[in-house]
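job 3f2a | input accepted
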Amino acid sequence: MDRITYEICVLEALREQLRSKEVWVVGSNRYANPDDDLPADFDTHREACCEALRLPQDAQTFIADEL
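job 3f2a | predicted structure (67 res):
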């Protein structure tokens, strides 16, 4: 196995996972935990948020509208 090729493959996989937030870096702003992106009070204000964004609250309806 070629070590350089292996390292490049590992770094490319890490890059893709960082971009999709499958992996995150503690203390990072850009590559932070995706759970921290959600408002802390979203569950209590869900209805108002969906109305402001003009989105349905039901996930199945949202998905069906997108298809």
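job 3f2a | The first helix runs from residue 3 to 19.
job 3f2a | closed
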